[in-house]
Design brief:
The protein is mainly alpha-helical and about 325 residues long. The chain is built from 16 helices and four strands. β1 and β2 form a beta hairpin. The chain is globular and about 60 Å long. The chain starts with a strand and ends with a helix.
């Protein structure tokens, strides 16, 4: 039994382990190749987050989904490179929008080189992803473009906020479906599709990926409040300090609006104040960690992870299916 990929996923079959490890190594080489430029500075900026590491969650899903067909098919590794390049590009843009200082334990690109270079580097990565994608055929281009549209739509919806009487929690879950679920779903879809798996299997894995992606992000929301460590390369309470709406805070706001308890109202006021003050920030974290809103966010995380697991039921039993199911468990474990 060997641990690979994010969350310490355990692979219990030597053949599957070899396929996954070989595939991920090839993806890593492909990422480095795709981020090279004739201009050394562009190479440095483009490889900044590649070299910082990361979970490689999406390429791992491509490799596991490919096990339901021919995992050695020529389109499998390039499609994994495409989804990871796309993900990396969004991180450059996200850090500019969020004014983030750190990403994956290193200075963010915008901190090191400024916003303009960070945005343009993200654009460069999108271009390189498109170049690789073009070799995978028009269907792959269509699928990726639809996912990218959903991703950008999710980002726009997050930036604009819920409109009218739209429930903020429902709005947020829609945002996550676009921002995170769409690309995770495509990772599973590409792996299965490029391997030549049956269309029914491709559909099942796509729906699995959509739900797992949302659960994955919700687990990060919980970790931002609950963790005392530097998991995900971010200091606990980073999203909170930056005013980024996450599910525990949205549940707190809903409770304060519905019941109006003095404690909840006071906590919302603290959150809406200056969280640049370390003492205030620590007090908010302390109170959120024992608030029912955090447990409610955990339950939501579990719900999406269990929905993802349920989607796998029609697939044939085997080590690849077991690994995908274990990812659901791992996401829940991250959320506590």
């Amino acid at each position: 039994m060997t641990v690979v990929g994010p969350f310490g996923l355990s692979v219990r079959d030597q053949a599957l382990e070899a396929d996954v490890q070989t595939g991920l190594a090839a993806v890593e080489a492909g990422l480095l190749d795709a981020t090279k430029s004739e201009i050394p500075f562009i190479t440095e900026a483009a490889q900044h987050l590649v070299l910082a590491g990361g979970k490689r969650f999406r390429p791992l899903l491509v490799m596991l989904a490919a096990q339901f067909g021919d995992p050695y098919a020529p389109g499998v590794v390039p499609s994994a490179v495409v989804v990871e390049l796309t993900h990396l590009a969004t991180l450059y843009h996200d850090d500019v929008m969020d004014e983030a200082d750190v990403r994956r334990g290193v200075d963010s690109a915008n901190t090191r080189w400024g916003n303009s270079i960070a945005v343009l580097t993200g654009d460069f990565l999108f271009a390189r992803a498109s170049h690789t994608l073009a070799d995978l055929g028009p269907e792959a281009v269509r699928i990726q473009s639809e996912a990218f549209e959903r991703l950008v739509t999710g980002q726009i919806l997050e930036t604009a906020g819920p409109q009218g009487d739209r429930d903020p929690v429902d709005h947020y879950l829609d945002v996550l479906g676009g921002k995170t679920g769409s690309l995770v779903a495509v990772s599973c879809r590409f792996g299965a599709m490029m391997s030549g798996a049956d269309e029914s299997v491709v559909d099942i894995l796509t729906q699995y990926g959509e739900r797992l992606g949302v659960a994955f992000q919700l687990a990060d929301d919980v970790l931002d409040i609950a963790s005392d460590s530097h998991e995900s390369g971010k200091t606990p309470g980073t999203d909170l300090r930056e005013g980024i709406p996450t599910l525990p805070v949205l549940h707190l706001r809903a409770a304060a609006a519905a019941h109006g308890s003095p404690e909840d109202v006071e906590l919302v006021e603290l959150i809406d104040g200056d969280l640049g003050d370390d003492a205030r920030h620590a007090e908010v974290l302390r109170r959120l960690r024992v608030h029912p809103a955090l447990e409610q966010a955990r339950r939501d995380t579990v719900r999406f992870a269990e929905e993802a697991r349920a989607m796998l039921a029609p697939l044939p039993d085997g080590y690849a299916k077991s690994a995908l199911m274990e990812l659901c468990d791992a996401v829940v474990h991250r959320a506590g």
